[in-house]
Amino acid sequence: MNIQPNLLFDDDDDEILEFINYRRRPYTVRDRINHMIKWDDHDFLIRFRLSKVVVEQVLELITDNISVENQWNCAIAPIDKLLLTLRFYASGSFLITAGDFLGVSKSSACVIVRTVSTAIASLCHQFIRMPTTDEEVPGGHNAEYFRNRKGYFSLNVQTVVSPDLKIMDIVARWPGSCHDQTIFKNSNIYSQLVNGKWGNSLIVADSGYKNSSHIVTPFINPRGNIEELYNESIIRTRNPVERTYGVLKRRFPIVSLGLRLKLTTSQAIIVACSILHNIACDNNDLEAPDLIDVVLPPNEIINVNHEVIDEEGCARQQLIREYFSRL
């Protein structure tokens, strides 16, 4: 049998020739538009979901964390980094699309979104906080852990919302399979309520939580006029919560349409969007601009507690007995 040794090395030769003849793609710098000048206030708000005043305020807070030491090789300016990230939040689209909008590559867009989101999320203690005075107290390997009971992957985010639509507390680290009650029992808010930090204040929650001396929820199956009246009052009191979620999701559709990023980056984006929402509220910007060609999925309650015997000293029964029964 005749064997031609040279044939054994044909594949290696092809790889060597391919390496020798490889030509890198030319380095290009795309033109970058000054969006602060190009758009009027209305068009700017439509595209970035925040006014120019709010964007400038946020930029001032995070500039030191997102700036580079030099401006070599056409470095991306902090304002462009912030606007790219806001456009990504606003469109809920792919990184390559957000990059094209600002004239940068997909890899640059990925780094920018992560850096800016982390910088904004670091402002959490400044813009997301519970009341500190009496005047402020308002009436990979574990992937399946993140699959909620609806069958898709998610984070179960707990928030406490004030009557003026501001987010006072946020917990964005638990997987979608965790029950609301589990998250609450392991949160700082629960410890502070138990320790009496806010006196006899109550948190009005949905049916995903258990009634206690600090939490009140509606009756799933109200019996009689008194319980129906109580339910109506609870629903009216919780209305700012639903409004807040609606405004937040319309302002930043990315938190509703889904994130295709690393877990830590996704968590940073959720907190960052909440901080930006609070800053907008501080500037009396309580309504998000209308969405164009974007349909958001409806809100839904993933965890629902069936009716159980209330704990001893339950605030709901006390309200029924001492207030609603006398109306």
From TrEMBL:
Residues 125-278 form the DDE Tnp4 domain. The lineage of its organism: Eukaryota, Metazoa, Ecdysozoa, Arthropoda, Hexapoda. Keywords: Hydrolase, Metal-binding, Nuclease, Nucleus. One of its GO terms (molecular function) is metal ion binding. It comes from Macrosiphum euphorbiae (potato aphid). InterPro entries: HARBI1-like (IPR045249), HARBI1_dom (IPR027806). It is found in: Nucleus. Signal peptide: none annotated. It holds the Pfam family DDE_Tnp_4. Its main location: nucleus. This is DDE Tnp4 domain-containing protein.
